Amino acid sequence: MEQVLQVYMRPYDSKRPVVCMDEQPKQLISESQTPITTSRGEQYIDYEYIRQGVCDVWMFTEPLGCWRDVRISE
Question: What are the beta bridge partners of residue 24?
Fold first, then answer.
């Protein structure tokens, strides 16, 4: 871990940028029933849902270069 932190402390070099990558899987869901709205405007949503699959969210950043890119898989 200390070696990784040393990399982040390096000064900016455009020929050797420090690029970070992270992946996060996300579950895609939809409501199984229409939310109920009361006369006071409160909304009640059922906890039941329909699974619509999954996707992966990828984030690439270059912190010292002020750059980021987000990609989402199908």
Answer: 57
